[in-house]
Amino acid sequence: MRVIKRKGNIEEFDMEKIETSIVNSAQDASSELTQGDVKVLLAQVKKRLEGLTKDNRTTSTYEIRGLVYHVLKDLGFTKAIKSYMGLK
User: Fold this and answer.
1) 10 sits in which H/E element
2) In whole angstroms, what separates CA 22 from the centre of its chain?
């Protein structure tokens, strides 16, 4: 899967970047995630991204950010949302 980055360059999608971002956001919000939490969150992100990018459609960091926001919200990880979205 390919991702259009903020500066316009195109890169291959890297799930590890999403994992790092989610874990760091939770830590910043004083909300530790278990390994199981991370596994469930990443599985949902992957599932939704596959639906979004079927037929080799390229996505953007903006779309991925929104998708991760909705996964965090839908699964009840609301403490991490503000940090993930860069809000105070």
Assistant:
1) strand 10-12
2) 7
Specify the residue for token string 């799930």: 15
State the burial class of residue 50 (Cβ atoms within 10 Å of its Cβ: 0-12, 13-18, 19+).
exposed
Look up the pTM and report it: 0.88
pLDDT tens across 42-79, in order? Answer: 999 999 999 988 888 899 999 999 999 999 999 999 98
Core vs surface per residue 51-84: b (16+ CB within 10 A) or e:
eebeeeeebeeebbeebbeebbeeeebeebbebb
Whole-number Å distance between alpha carbons of 19 and 80? 13
Four-CA torsion 4, 6, 11, 12, nearest 10 degrees: -70
Dihedral sign of CA atoms 9, 12, 62, 28 in order: negative
State the Cα–Cα distance between residues 13 and 83, nearest whole angstrom: 22
